[in-house]
Amino acid sequence: MKQIPAPLLTLTIGVAVTLVSLWVGFNNSLLPEQASAQSVLVDNFFNVMVVIGTALFLVVEGAIVYCMIAFRRRKGDDTDGSPIEGNLPLEAFWTAIPAIIVIGLGIYSVQIFQDMGGFTPGDMVHDHGTMIAQSSDSALQGLAPEGAQPELLAKSVYGFGAPLEKEGLSADLEVNVSGMQYAWIFTYPDSGIVDGELHVPVNADVQLNISAQDVIHSFWVPQFRLKQDAIPGKDTELRFVATKPGTYPVVCAELCGGYHGAMRTQVIVHSPSEYQKWMESRIAQAEPTTTEAIAVNPADLTDAEYLAPYGADIDVDAQLLAHLAH
Amino acid sequence: MAQANITSDMVGQSFPHPDKWKWYHYFTFNIDHKVIGIQYLVTAFFFYLVGGVMALVMRSELATPNADLIDPNFYNAMLTNHGTIMIFFWIVPAAIGGFGNFLVPLMIGARDMAFPKLNAAAFWITVPAGALIIGSMFFGGAQAGWTSYPPLSRITANTAQSMWILAITLVGTSSIMGAVNFIVTIWKMRVPSLKWDQLPLFCWAMMATSILALFSTPVLAAGLILLLFDINFGTSFFDPAKGGDVVMYQHLFWFYSHPAVYLMILPIFGIMSEVIPVHARKPIFGYKAIAYSSLAICLVGLFVWVHHMFTSGTPPWMRMFFTVSTLIVAVPTGVKIFSWVATLWGGKIRYTSAMLFAIGLLAMFVLGGLSGVTLGTAPVDIHVHDTYYVVAHFHYVLFGGSVFGLYAGLYHWFPKMTGHMLNEPLGKLHFVLTFIGTNLTFLPMHELGLKGMPRRVAMYDPQFQYINIICTVGAFLLGLSVLPFIINAIWSWRNGPKASGNPWNAKTLEWTTDSPPIIENWNVLPAVTEGPYEYGHEPAEVSSS
């Protein structure tokens, strides 16, 4: 090592660490496939952190291993090491560099968070009253139940709203999502469809209005990189654009009881024509059930009875549902 | 207690005591800080084994995707009590109660803690608390996670949940009593020749820990007592149907429980700063930076709690504010890591078991810290919150960090505590098994979480089975790794070679007395003539860095 000048060695190590880190950062297959507009933003951010993290990891672990080998006690040597107690420039350096990195990451997070729609949850809810009056957009017809306006206005909504470029615009499709032990119920207010699975058209701006009936649940689609708790007594929303047709898991991420792990269903991202077909078939199919549903007050039913029609769809067996009867 | 005994003529004098404690004195209301320290450590280690068995039950269940081994409700009781026991009955009492009590008076040249009876009371409060936790298992066990979020905690296993709340409240009370005691002891009872900049870094860490405990623990107690009233007395603080707010509980809980993370790691950082210089035979690098970074972590650590609630009912500004504050914690933590690595640099490292565990901690904590930075940012946390990625992260910090640190401390101070040396080959075997087991168990969990497996589930998507089997194998290896330590500790305590007063040739004050120390620590209090880490200097040379 004496032959290689120190600056050259440092440079070589630096370049090697940088290359390896970049490669790890952008070639890791740690994340599932990207199926929403937000997933691309999150992954880019995550991968940048993987690059920085890998570089720091290699440097620190490399230093530890080097010390362990180079500065091990030799046999028979009972003397102490050199009495170095500190080095101000070095300490300032390793305080400043992480500080700059985390400030940079902080700013970057705010940017990504804004692009994801993190700053605008609940925007559209406030506008429902006026928008319904003005708009001829069929998607909005019959959305808010009569008399709900004052309550909606008074509440704040948490979650993810419109992405930056759609700010102030209402979503193409709204779906009400209700979490209960141990199922998700998806209601399409403009068509009256009720389903145990979420069906959305690809490339549509979808807004989920999330609520919980009993305990806290958390709506998570790993392929969308989006998660929002469903909280009793609070309104939350998730707005996303699914970018890739396919079937993805919907997972409950907040401990909600014994069968929390079984609270899984799926989101099916359709091409527009397929989505239309699905909707028509469901409307045709659902007519009788809808009237029935209106005739029966859900509060009079046990969870098991209420859920039974969805049991087949949501991968929860009837026996399990029977356990839920209060 | 015999109040009449405490008269003014007792002040400044010692209580009558035998020359040496007998074994049965360790089972009494003994006010010697060293006895209390060992009481804490042994009790905590018992609970470590209980919590470990619970972990193995869970990992066995998770070897297959279906809930086919145990009832899912019992699984939830396991995960709740595993977390609770490991935090409140193992790491916190072992690190603060055990090492803090045993070492702080010895390190500052005091004969005992400032309030010895308060100290003993703080320990004995944890005994009914432990009994409540174990007792709650006979009522189904609390099942709402160690976080016990309402509404789930309001409606599930009410008796067990109430016992759980009482247990945690008792432990919290004990923690507050301990915190007051440490602050006063370190502030007022240092031997006069010991200046602040000669204070061992473990004591700085205990100071920061105690301040943090004092500020944050009452908030947890408040949250839990409201929950207790909701469950048992018909109040509706956290009942949304009656106007209660479930998110308020999360704020109360995390205002304590995030700082609790630092309660579990700051004392361990203190242990690191003691163990590394001794076995590297070098002064600690950047004494002041390490001391002040403990205080910085303590301060910033009070303002990061909402990063546990990024997917909850949290407004955008809060998500961003707490992203930035969380990231800032990485800076003082990084300073410590870099300083320890720099302490190794140019040393003459002795590979004792204590040093191996300390270096193991250093190596693994780096990964835990880096994954912590990714978790601190809201955009990524939205995806990985409540997944196995979080489980991986906090086990790297709490197992790779805290537990490794506790082991490093045990190997380092066992001779001082018992007067016997531990067996080194067994210690090294223990280290190798634990290091492999830890990485085998927790490294793959990062991928599980990123790929989509939520935490706290008894049943999971079959695509994750392969990785789960690796984790389960690792967990059993970890279970096995405890055996060499138990055999070593029991055997060495009775038969190990006698330890001299200063077997490691260390410079802090606890090594200036016998092993084990006499009951009031020294016949004549030591005088401090040099800093605690002046290796490689001539003894007379006093540094003024």
Low-pLDDT segments, ≥5 res of chain B: 1-11, 540-545
Tally of domains of chain A: 2
Order of helices and strands of chain B: HHHHHHHHHHHHHH
CATH architecture identity of chain B: Up-down Bundle
What is the terminal-to-terminal distance of chain A?
Answer: 75 Å
- Stated plainly, the CATH topology of the largest domain in chain A is called Immunoglobulin-like
> Biggest sheet of chain A, open or closed, and with what strands and sense?
6 strands, mixed
Q: How far is the first residue's CA from the last residue's CA of chain B?
A: 48 Å
Shape of chain A: elongated
Mean pLDDT of chain B: 92
User: Helicity range of the residues of chain B?
Assistant: 55-70%
Structure annotation, total helices of chain A: 8
Q: Return the CATH class of the largest domain in chain A.
A: Mainly Beta
Q: How much helix, percentage-wise, in residues of chain A?
A: 40-55%
- Which assembly state applies to the chains in this document? heterodimer
**What shape does the CA trace of chain B take?**
globular
Characterize this entry briefly.
Chain A is α/β, with parallel strands linked by helices and 326 residues long. Helix content of chain A is 44%, strand content 19%.
Structure commentary:
- The complex is a heterodimer of chains A (326) and B (545).
- Chain A is of the alpha/beta class and 326 residues long.
- Chain A has 2 domains: 93 residues; 199 residues, Cupredoxins -  blue copper proteins (Immunoglobulin-like, Sandwich), CATH 2.60.40.
- Helix content of chain A is 44%, strand content 19%.
- Chain A contains 8 helices and 11 strands.
- In chain A, the strands form 2 sheets. A 6-stranded mixed sheet of chain A has the order 1-9-6-2-3-4. A 5-stranded mixed sheet of chain A has the order 5-11-10-7-8.
- In chain A, strand 2 and strand 3 form a beta hairpin.
- In chain A, helix 1 packs antiparallel against helix 2, helix 2 packs antiparallel against helix 3 and helix 7 packs antiparallel against helix 8.
- The longest helix of chain A is centred in the N-terminal third of the chain and has 34 residues.
- Chain A is elongated and about 85 Å long.
- About 11% of the residues of chain A have low confidence.
- With 545 residues, chain B is mostly helical.
- Chain B has one domain: Up-down Bundle (Cytochrome C Oxidase, Chain A), CATH 1.20.210.
- Chain B is built from 14 helices and no strands.
- Chain B is globular.
- The N and C termini of chain B lie far apart (48 Å).
- The N terminus and C terminus of chain B are likely disordered.
- At the A-B interface, helix 2, helix 3, strand 8 and strand 10 of A face helix 2, helix 7, helix 8, helix 9 and helix 10 of B.
